[in-house]
Every structure is written in C-alpha cells, then in structure tokens.
Amino acid sequence: MYPRRYIGGLLAAAWVALAMPAAAQTNVLVFAATSMKEALDGVAAQWQRETGKKAVISYAASSALARQIEQGAPAQIFISADLDWMDYVENKKLIKPATRTNLLGNRIVLIAPKSSAATIKIEPNFPLATALGSGRLALADVNAVPAGKYGKAALEKLGVWNSVQDKMAQAENVRAALLLVSRGEAPLGIVYQTDATADPGVKIVGTFPEETHPPIVYPAALTTSTNDPDAEALLAYMSSPKARPLLAAQGFVILD
Q1: pLDDT of residue 18
Q2: CATH topology identical between 4-105+217-254 and 108-212
Q3: What is the mean pLDDT of the chain?
Q4: Which H/E stretch holds residue 144?
Q5: Interior CA angle at 165 toward 159 and 168, to 5°?
Q6: Which of helix, strand or coil describes residue 53?
Q7: CATH number of this structure's domain 4-105+217-254
Q8: H-helix or E-strand containing 253?
Q9: How far apart are CA 130 and CA 144, in angstroms?
Q10: CB burial class (10 A; 0-12, 13-18, 19+) of residue 165?
Q11: CA angle (223 as vertex; 78, 29 as ends), nearest 5
C-alpha cells in the first residue's frame, strides 16, 4: 500500500488515464513532473497552434507518475524531475531507451512568503532551525519526490539536516510545498527556482549551491505503450529551438 501522501498524485494521474481512453488515441498523453506546468503548458499550446495536434498533460510528482505508468496508465511521454525515476521505469522496460533525452536542468531555492522580512545566507551550518522558529520547513517528500530528495541532500551536505528534520512539513509534490509557503502556512520552504518564479506569493531568500546536491536533470522519453508518430514529434519539439525560449523563460536550464 502506498503512503497517504502519494494518493493525491496517483488519483490525479489515474483520473486522466481512466477518464480519457478515447482521447488518448487522438491526443498525445504526457505524464510530467509538477514543476513543469507553466513551461510545458506553453510548449503544448504553441505546438497545437502550429500543428493542430493536442497534448493532454497530467502533472504530479515524478514518483507517483512512474508508479502509475508501472500500473498500466497509457502515458505516451514521461518527463521526470530526476534521473532516478526515469531509471526506474527504464529498468521496468516501460520506456524506449533510444528516445530518452536529458531535456532540462533546474535549481533548488529557499523561499519565504512575499511579505516575509527573512534574510538568510545559505552556507555550511547556516541557522535554518533558528529562522524557522516554531514554524515548519515546507518541501516535497524527501524519500520519494525529486525536489524533496534534492533538498534533503543539500541540507545534509551543509550540515543542517539534523537540526531541522523534526520541523518538516512534507508535501506530496513540490507545488503543494510551494502552496504552503505562498499561503503563509510555513515560514520557509525548499522548491525549484522555476516554482518560485511561477508564484507571486513567494520570494527567493537563497539559492542552494549546485555542489550541495546531485545535478537536477529532467529526462524525457517515449513509453513502450506508444507507436504514435505525434508523440514522437512532440518529444522532438520539446527540444527544438521553437520550444527552448518558452522553457528558459520559466527559469529552466536548457541542456544540449
């Protein structure tokens, strides 16, 4: 049985998969990490204007989407927020390895509500616990969701994990963690830079050095369940010069 925190993401993905079997035959069904929403929505809309083809996109934590694909959801393209979950579905022989590409990069940042006066310098042994006070640190599930795993790795590397591990507000995905901070329910949070850019209710108070966590890479691939040329065309379009400005505008790092 999956932990309760996965249920929202699993149900969201399952709803798309089960409610749209006919649409999946004419539209390209994409499973993508939640942090890609604004950027990928823009790419899909532009692709539709240019080709007349439509993409239906289900967003959730990479972990939830990978498990949904494992359970038989008819996704045609999978985009993960880390290499681990793409490796997971590849090891299950659920993607076409020849189509796999490292699409994007990202950064993780420390955020606070827009109205916060917090000023924090991210460095070894920085006083994160003190900055939290009686509040909690919002971040995605540190055991499964890529953003949470990156955040935990950075805090461990900086020597502050032990001081804050009992002050966590773990969410089912990175956007849920973002919302906790945007609503003022948590004084600080760790999300992707692209998430912070997408929400005017938060501000970035610090960026985690890249050497404190594994490289943040978004791999994409076709699943073994599809032979649709439109899915192949959309995957190629995501890496094209036409799509890159839309992705970069949301703060993603374009990987060549």
Answers
A1: 46
A2: yes
A3: 91
A4: none
A5: 130
A6: coil
A7: 3.40.190.10
A8: strand 253-254
A9: 27
A10: middle
A11: 60
CB 132 within 8 A of CB 235: no
Q: 108-212: CATH homologous superfamily?
A: Periplasmic binding protein-like II (3.40.190.10)
pLDDT of residue 26: 77
pTM: 0.85
For the chain, the domains span 4-105+217-254, 108-212
> Nearest to residue 217, comparing CAs of 55, 107, 74?
107
What tokens does 90 get? 């590849």
Q: Which residues of the chain have pLDDT under 50?
A: 1-15, 17-24
pLDDT value for 23: 42
Question: Please, what is the Cα angle at 124 between 173 and 159, to 5 degrees?
Answer: 65
| Nearest Cα residue to 251 out of 209, 189, 204, 205 | 204
Report the C-alpha gap between 148 and 193 in whole angstroms: 13
Inter-residue contact 176 to 9 (CB < 8 Å):
no
Dist CA 110 CA 131 (whole Å)? 12
Size of the chain in residues: 256
Q: How far is CA 41 from the centre of its chain?
A: 14
Residue 102's Cβ-count burial label (10 Å; 0-12, 13-18, 19+) is middle
SS3 track for 89-124? HHHCCCECHHHCEEEEECCEEEEEECCCCCCCCCCC
Hey, what are 50's tokens?
Answer: 């240019």
| Residue 43 exposure: Cα atoms within 13 Å on the Cβ side | 27
